[in-house]
Amino acid sequence: MTGNEKPPAADRHPEICVGAIVVDRGELLLIKRGSPPSEGRWSLPGGRVMWGETLRDAVVRELFEETGQRGVCEGFVGWTEMIGSDHHFVIVDFRVAIRQRSPLIPGDDAEDVAWVPLTELSRVDLVPGLSAFLRRCGVVPEFSDPSNGAGASR
Fold this sequence. Notes:
about 35% strand, about 15% helix, mainly beta
């Protein structure tokens, strides 16, 4: 195998990832994904946990790398999975408080980053299942999101 090939599915395992739920002044911090899966759609800042890194440290690191914001992990919110033909991510989401708003700087794997008013989330092209997850965990109030079909996982 060359360096870019993935091992056969039988030899692969789910990857542990984290997501940062940052709500400040009635706005949710989102990144526009710059790579698959769900490239071009909006999601929570986050990514893979590195070997030896705690989940809490990973979510704070990923928040900074993807948005330029420094935060403090406040606690566990929920978990979900993303399973596709070429990936299986177990995503553990935490509420994160930012210390103070800084200029938004999208990371190398984020196409864009923005503060989105909670009242405007229904107009944003979110990754599949994210709006339902945020409602289920009590992060945001009910709103309709036709882009996220029933049974979709984030």
